[in-house]
Design brief:
Blueprint lengths: L1 E3 L2 E3 L3 H17 L7 H17 L1
Antiparallel strand pairs: 1-2
C-alpha cells in the first residue's frame, strides 16, 4: 500500500486480505463507536469485490 495525497493505493491482493483480517478482528474485539458494524461489513464486501475483479 502507498499513500497518495488523501488516497490509499492498494498494490496487491495480499493487502486486501490483510485489511479484511483487520476488519474481522475489529468486528470481533473492537468498540464500534466511530463506525457501525454494518459500515464495516459493507467495506469488507467492497474489498471482496475488488479482490475478485483484480
Amino acid at each position: 500500500m502507498k499513500l497518495t495525497g488523501d488516497k490509499i493505493i492498494i498494490e496487491s491482493r495480499y493487502e486486501i486480505d490483510d485489511i479484511q483480517a483487520m476488519i474481522d478482528c475489529y468486528l470481533e474485539h473492537g468498540r464500534q463507536e466511530d463506525v457501525t458494524k454494518s459500515e464495516l461489513k459493507r467495506l469488507r464486501d467492497e474489498l471482496d469485490a475488488l479482490y475478485m475483479c483484480w
